[in-house]
Amino acid sequence: MSHRATLTPQMLQYAEKFDDRGDIRWMPYLMYFHAADHRSEVVNTDRLGFRLTHGPDGATASPGGPLPEGPVRLLAGSSTAFGIGASSDRHTLPSWLWSKHAPSVPWLNFAGRSHNSTQELLLFTLYRHLLPQIDEIVLFSGFNNLGLSRLPAPIRGDSGAFFNCNDFYGQMEELRAGRRKASGGRGLFGGRRQAEPAPADTRVPELAEQIELAVELTLRHLDSWRLLAQGMGAKLTFVLQPLATWVRETPAPQERLLFDELDAISNFGEVYGDISSMAAREAYSKELRSGCEQMGVRFLDLNPVVADAIGQDDWLFVDRIHFTDDGHDLVAGLLARQLDLT
After folding, report:
1. Can you tell me the distance from the alpha carbon of 179 to that of 29, in angstroms, rounded to the nearest whole number?
2. Other C-beta atoms within 10 Å of 62: how many?
3. CB of 213 within 8 A of CB of 284?
4. Distance between CA atoms of 334 and 342, rounded to whole angstroms?
5. Hey, where are the domains in the chain?
6. How far apart are CA 72 and CA 68, in angstroms?
7. Percent of the chain beyond pLDDT 90?
8. Which positions ≥6 away from 246 have C-beta within 8 Å?
9. In terms of CATH architecture, what is 3-183+200-338?
10. What confidence tens digit (pLDDT) does each residue in 162-174 have?
11. Is the Cβ–Cβ distance between 105 and 74 less than 8 Å?
């Protein structure tokens, strides 16, 4: 049996329903979101696909399900905020915050797996109308924009690349090719179509350019978050999420087993190797912090905070980006302390 199946059996359920490309729930505007009304011992979603959050005394809440009457706090972001890696809904970051570390106001899980900053912002604008008064928004994000910034310019476009974008562009090109063939090369009004465009730029940006692209896109959307939060009277914080290789150079023993096994079946090192270094994180964090300060948004790089709070053998990650249950608990507690949440 694999180390992943032995050490993190919950990941098999995430893979079954949330990783399978054949089960992707394609959505207008967002491109994709989680399965709706999903039920299992590991992860449960409401009628819209948001994950349930657990609070004190058995309370639960979600944007598309039961909601408290009073003010709420949101944890937004992508898969780490959603809680991939947690063995149950009770062990995600928003559940630990509501049930243990900052229980004075209910927390909602407002994250979308594999979302970039464009999708994180769109998700909020599409479903904000369902929510009661919002007291606080913690945007726990940053990695996906950087990871996707290495893709060529035609794929990034004006709003950033997104996961599964090759499926989208491939299908669109097949559709265009079919229509060109059906029209016999004639345009809308019967004229001969123009020649095919020149081959697209497929250059992979250098690391410094990747960081620049990710910072610009993140801050652009964060400024929209700022305006929305300001209009609602909500406090906004951007948290640069931890990555295992941004926290420490030598993983815990269990992490080493899991990372080696995952590397044998994936191309993480090939795809993300240049951005996974401490130096890349420091450069990225510095630029994000400067941009947040200029627009008046509170910023927290959680990587050095986590590094200072753990020992060399503390097992935090099920892979390089997602936490164990203890990791979620630790990070939620650090968030509460660093952001003065009660």
Report:
1. 24
2. 23
3. no
4. 12
5. 3-183+200-338
6. 8
7. 74
8. 276, 278, 281, 303
9. 3-Layer(aba) Sandwich (3.40)
10. 887 666 666 667 7
11. no
